[in-house]
Amino acid sequence: MTVLDDLRARLFLLRAAEPPAPALHQYVAVHGVVETVEHIWDRSAPAAVLNEITRPGAQIGDDLRALDAGTARVITPEDNDWPTGRLTALPGGGAPLALWTRGDASLAELTHQAVTITGARAASPYGETIAAEMSYDLAEAGVTVVSGGGFGVDAAAHRGALAANGPTIVVLAHGVDQTYPSAHARLFQSVIDNGGLLVSEYPIGARPSRVRLHTRCRLLAALTAATVIVEAGQRSGAFAVVRAANEFGRRTYGVPGPINSATSVGVHELLRTGAATLASSVEHINYQDGLR
After folding, report:
1. Which pTM was predicted?
2. What's the CA gap between 253 and 160, in Å, rounded?
3. Same structural domain for residues 39 and 134?
4. Which of 23, 35, 116, 147 would suit a FRET pair with 252, their CA atoms being 20 to 30 Å apart?
């Protein structure tokens, strides 16, 4: 087995299966990635693994060309840049097999002290202001701000960190060579230029989808010590981040808003049920846990 064999095998699995693929992950943990791919190709892998392979004829040419051109990187659990403490032994086979990144920073270093800030896409001016101010204060304290790169709270969080000249991480639901929403092309480039990262478990050229937007919520929760929900409506996608954070044993915080605000209904329910702890400033957020 060579390093190249291992890399090609991981690139194939990232394309062949739609994450999370728990049976595949468990099989890789026992047999390694190269043997797993061989067993997939000769159909000797268990049925549970084969059922998770949705693209058995996946080709990795675009991925290899991106790596050769230096436009993106792949980090694996064997690399020093891999945030082992963050992504090891996630429940339900939740850890990715590898991650694509754009930017020169170390993912392990950036996530050593990191907080996820996310919330409503259709955020109010209040929500965007609070997200930006909290992110600015966290960045000033040397904490990396992580978010999903979307409209509303996400964009405000990234811009707040950038305003403090702090690095920020965008966790994508598509390939790192794609931009979604397209209006955020300049924002994503600013993230890279300012020492941050674009991160994804999806291969080069992969497009966003509703399922992928939901799936990446577990990485938003896993990569940081704490998640802060600034605004969330009654059926907000941010709830998926909260569920993952609670499952992974991460801290979850909610920022209260006006009691008659539709964009704060979800946050207030999280606070009422005890699924999140109230935070009205960064002093209320505990991001110290020593994981790397």
Report:
1. 0.94
2. 18
3. no
4. 23
pLDDT for position 90 = 77
Q: Determine phi and psi for 52, rounding to 5 degrees.
A: -85, -10
Q: In CATH, what number is assigned to the domain containing residue 200?
A: 3.40.50.450
How many helices (H) and strands (E) in the chain? 14, 9
Q: Which strands, in side-by-side order, build the sheet including 251-254?
A: 73-75, 99-102, 197-200, 168-171, 144-147, 114-118, 226-229, 251-254, 277-278
> Is residue 267 domain-resident?
yes
- The angle subtended at Cα 185 by Cα 143 and Cα 131, nearest 5°, is 35
CA pair distance 193, 186, nearest whole angstrom: 10
For 259, the token pair is 């009691």
Question: Do β-strands 197-200 and 226-229 pair in parallel, antiparallel, or remain unpaired?
Answer: unpaired
Pair (128, 249) in one structural domain: yes
**Token reading at 61:** 């040419």
Q: Where are the alpha helices (DSSP H) in 112-232?
A: 125-140, 153-163, 185-193, 210-215, 217-222
Instruction: Bin 92: left if φ > 0, else alpha if -120 < ψ < 50, else beta.
Output: left
Give the domain extent around 54.
Answer: 1-59
Which neighbouring-strand residues pair with 100?
74, 200
Domain final residue pick, 19, 37, 59: 59
Q: What is the mean pLDDT of residues 86-102?
A: 84
Does one domain contain both 269 and 163? Answer: yes
Q: What's the pLDDT tens digit per position in 242-256?
A: 999 999 999 999 999
| Residue at 94: amino acid letter | G
Which amino acid is located at 43 in the chain? Answer: R
Whole-angstrom Cα distance, residue 272 to residue 256? 11
Q: How many domains does the chain have?
A: 2
